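Structure in, sequence out. Go:
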């Protein structure tokens, strides 16, 4: 980085101020993301990624674990469905999260989706760069930290963002290394989303199609996050504290874990469960909840 205050610093023996804006711009201009830093062999995390120590949350209570709900048979067995609706109601009310198993998305599809995301980020940079943008208008966008220039500290993460519904991109617009699995996985997730909105509607005491009728299930944004190995993990975070501003998030974790949720003022680990998908009740859905059903 070229520091315009370097000459003055030499003359006055005063340490130059940290020019965060210049460092952010220099990082962004590479279009190589966090992976580019790792590929360059850095041994120290750049200051733009440093998080205050109070941002690091430690799980203090191992007695808590988010509910795991078995969705098998909910479309055929009315008794099982009533039981699952009750579990969804309780989990959504108390936690805002649950892990769904036997949800009809094949494990092979989930594994290939994770592999497809890795292939995208690990391909040649020149190929990746064609998707790089700070403008979220395109259907397919790759960048590092959507809020890079506005957040107090950058996250150690690169992201591929694709708007798969209601107006999916043309097949040729999707990255070649993962386009087939993106299409297949999105179909499965849209089907699962439809079921989840039925269960949530019933949990609220509403018609099963209520949330779908007001178009909560109409759109699908697919985000593939990539967290390269960090040389100083004690200084930064892959994802900082946040709330999802959508209707629901269906999260596919890899085997590494690291996800935490805030429950009763404590940060609780959400360890990966083989074959499970994490369901997060988003802020938009909370805003759609009828007062009589809250």
């Amino acid at each position: 980085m070229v520091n315009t205050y370097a000459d003055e610093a030499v003359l006055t023996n005063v340490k130059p101020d940290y020019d965060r804006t210049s460092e952010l711009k220099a990082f962004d201009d590479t279009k190589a993301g966090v992976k580019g830093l790792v590929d360059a062999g850095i041994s120290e995390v750049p200051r733009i990624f440093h998080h205050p120590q109070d941002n690091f949350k430690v799980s203090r209570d191992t007695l808590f674990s988010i509910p795991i709900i078995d969705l098998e048979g909910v479309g055929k067995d009315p008794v099982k469905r009533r039981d699952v609706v009750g579990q969804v109601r309780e989990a959504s009310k108390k936690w805002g999260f649950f892990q769904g198993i036997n949800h009809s998305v094949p494990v092979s599809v989930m594994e290939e989706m994770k592999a497809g995301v890795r292939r995208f980020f690990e391909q040649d940079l020149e190929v990746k760069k064609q998707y790089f943008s700070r403008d979220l208008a395109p259907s397919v966008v790759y960048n590092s930290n959507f809020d890079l220039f506005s957040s107090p500290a950058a996250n150690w993460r690169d992201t591929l963002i694709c708007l798969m519904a209601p107006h999916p991109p043309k097949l040729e617009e999707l990255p070649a290394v993962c386009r087939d699995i993106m299409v297949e996985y999105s179909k499965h997730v849209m089907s699962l989303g439809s079921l989840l909105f039925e269960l949530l509607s019933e949990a609220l005491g509403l018609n099963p199609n209520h949330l779908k009728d007001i178009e909560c299930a109409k759109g699908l944004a697919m985000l593939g996050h990539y967290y390269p190995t960090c040389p100083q993990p004690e200084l930064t975070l892959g994802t900082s504290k946040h709330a999802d501003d959508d209707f629901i998030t269906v999260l596919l974790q890899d085997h590494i874990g690291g996800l935490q949720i805030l429950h009763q003022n404590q940060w609780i680990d959400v360890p990966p469960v083989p074959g499970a998908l994490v369901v997060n009740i988003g802020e938009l859905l909370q805003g759609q909840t009828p007062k009589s059903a809250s």
